[in-house]
Protein: Cell division cycle protein 27 homolog
Organism: Liparis tanakae
Amino acid sequence: MIYYKQEKFNLAEIHFKKALSINPQSSVLLCHIGVVQHALKKSDAALETLNRAIVIDPKNPLCKFHRASILFANDKYKAALQELEELKQIVPKESLVYFLIGKVYKKLGQTHLALMNFSWAMDLDPKGANNQIKEAIDKRYLPEDEAAEVDDSQDSSIMTDADDTQLHTAESDDVL
């Protein structure tokens, strides 16, 4: 995790894989490996790794969220939307799910559905996940050139450490 947080993704992948060799049935470790692989621009491998994690634990919201995020990042909007709809059933009060659904609808040109999901995300998290939700709504009113610049700078940080902790906390609450 330290290497991951330091953005030393190659080293993080090596050590997550060593941990996985000790506990090969850990969906959480597979999820972390998938996230690191995506950061290393190995999106296909990341999706395969996340698929393995979901086979082990089909209700793991963090793995499903990351898989949807990677699908979104790879312009597979319909598949991302399907994943997010399933995820909504598992964690119905997770603002980040609605936020990403809103981003998908925005890319699909369905502004009314995008704004509706951004609104739901704001209702669930009034602070707006580091103001990303409010900015996404505001981008609708910016000229297209400016909106693209703002969007590109934020796509790489779809999920922050705080968001990761929030979903991980929801996951551990389910275990209790």
